[in-house]
């Protein structure tokens, strides 16, 4: 059972708590069926259809993936034609797993580089000063307390004429009941730290784990868009999608490869995506 508390302050040691949680789960993710790394070595693509369509042709472009975890999404962009990808994550075991996967696929560090570092310090950590595309995938922003600092850092890494692409779970879902998603039971505008104590992982709920505490933050859609605009990026689109990658609500069913509400259930946004360009 999830246990959470909300606090207006940023808990001391939050980064270390989260890193310990993620470090422990990397071997579970590498070995498990959720990421299916053996299958990935064959299919070579874990990106969602809407991501590929919205990002467009990446042939010959450089791409930076912030909070890349074990690198499957990062490496997928190479297989769609990116000239060079760089993945950054604060978990050293995750970065080592990503490097090993890249090597298995025949990509050396000149084509696919993975570095360990905090996302807020990315400008001082990644090998190049800027990239054609800065990409952030699903489930990343909730681990960051300061969304404006994130936006400023991400924007600083976009080349002139390039863009940031973000796909993220929609914050509205966090306000709804977990059973049916039909009742508002939590405060959408809550910005305090949420401290969770939960064993296992989304990739294997039965996994035996020790480091089960984590600290997360909720960022409204307005907060994210406003932060990117304030950082000097121009929002080209904001799209909302009625699909998810995991059974967020108890009544979800799988159709067309996505988790969805039943067909007779009112649709709500479950994921959002946006593109923000630099002049």
UniProtKB/TrEMBL annotation:
The keyword Hydrolase does not apply. One of its GO terms (biological process) is antibiotic biosynthetic process. Keywords: Methyltransferase, Transferase. The keyword Cell division does not apply. Residues 64-164 form the Methyltransferase type domain. One of its GO terms (molecular function) is methyltransferase activity. Transmembrane segments: none annotated. This is SAM-dependent methyltransferase. The lineage of its organism: Bacteria, Bacillati, Actinomycetota, Actinomycetes, Kitasatosporales.
């Amino acid at each position: 059972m999830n246990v959470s508390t909300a606090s207006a302050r940023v808990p001391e040691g939050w980064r270390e708590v989260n890193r310990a949680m993620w470090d422990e789960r990397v071997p579970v993710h590498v070995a498990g069926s959720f990421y299916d790394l053996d299958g990935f070595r064959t299919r070579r693509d874990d990106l969602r259809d809407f991501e590929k369509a919205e990002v467009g042709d990446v042939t010959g472009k450089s791409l930076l993936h912030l909070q890349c975890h074990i690198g499957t999404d990062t490496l997928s962009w190479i297989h769609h034609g990116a000239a060079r990808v760089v993945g950054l994550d604060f978990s050293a075991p995750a970065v080592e797993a990503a490097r090993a996967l890249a090597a298995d696929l025949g990509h050396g560090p000149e084509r696919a580089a993975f570095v360990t570092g905090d996302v807020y310090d990315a400008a001082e950590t990644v090998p190049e000063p800027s990239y054609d595309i800065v990409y952030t995938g699903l489930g990343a922003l909730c681990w960051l307390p300061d969304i404006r600092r994130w936006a400023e850092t991400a924007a600083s890494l976009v080349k002139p004429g390039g863009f940031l692409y973000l796909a993220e779970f929609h914050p509205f879902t966090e306000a709804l009941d977990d059973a049916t998603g039909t009742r508002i039971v939590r405060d959408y505008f809550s910005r305090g730290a949420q401290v969770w104590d939960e064993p296992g992982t989304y990739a294997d709920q039965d996994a035996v784990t020790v480091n089960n505490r984590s600290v997360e933050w909720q960022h409204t859609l307005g907060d994210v868009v406003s932060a990117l605009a304030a950082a000097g990026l121009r929002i080209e689109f904001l799209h909302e999608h009625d699909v998810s990658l995991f059974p967020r609500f108890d009544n979800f069913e799988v159709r067309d490869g996505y988790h969805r509400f039943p067909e007779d259930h009112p649709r709500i946004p479950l994921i959002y995506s946006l593109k923000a360009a630099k002049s």
